[in-house]
Amino acid sequence: MASIRNSDFSQVEHTIKELTAARLEKASIELESSGKTADPAVNQLLRSLSLYGYRQPMSRESRLTMRRKIKSPDSSLQHSCDLLKLTACRTRETEEAEKFLGLDQAYKRARLAISDSVSLAIFFHRKVSMCFEHYVNVGEESVFVLVSQYNVAVETNERGALHLHGLLWLQGNMHLSTLSRDV
Question: Phi, psi at residue 20, to the nearest 5°?
Fold first, then answer.
């Protein structure tokens, strides 16, 4: 993925046309051995790339790859699964949740969400805990039918907003031919 300013586009385009396979091979060998290259044209192109070689942990590309892997069906276990995404700012609380969290006034909620990242993490943890306690109920009847296991990962964007990605394994195999009977 390249990120190039309009003013630099013609220079980058000219650099790409100048590069030969031999120069790229030499730069590739240098990058693999030392992590650097002496070729200024390749260095300029690498600065334009938002990521190369997955060197940036949790970059946009690696997160998309992880999501793609999570969403792919698990044919070895032959389980039905659902993908769950929970974002703290998008969920709606009931009155019981408001009492449980002790955030009955709007300005307290706003202050908690923007003033202190630790408080935001605590708020998000409580919200996620309530979601899994009341909605996911592993091994028991729940909103998602019977869930036998779940795996989750918490991500943050550049602004510090937290959200959770989860994979829920539903208990039993659900086949299309017996779907209406299984549900």
Answer: -115, 165
Taking CA atoms, 75 is separated from 78, 161, 165, in Å, by 5, 33, 20
- Give the model confidence (pLDDT) of 65-77 as tens digits: 766 665 555 544 4
Q: Are the C-beta atoms of residues 125 and 30 closer than 8 Å to each other?
A: no
d(CA 70, CA 73): 8
Token pair, residue 49, equals 């790339």
Query: pLDDT for 164-178, tens place per residue?
Result: 777 777 766 555 556
- Cα–chain-centroid distance for residue 59? 9
How many whole angstroms separate alpha carbon 52 and alpha carbon 62? Answer: 11
Q: pTM for this one?
A: 0.33
Strands (E), the chain: 80-87, 141-142, 145-156, 162-170
**The two structure tokens encoding residue 67:** 């999501």
Closest CA to 86 of 149, 128, 32, 46: 128
| pLDDT tens digits, 109-160 | 555 555 666 767 777 788 888 877 777 777 777 776 777 777 777 777 666 6
Q: 117, 139 in Cβ contact below 8 A? A: no
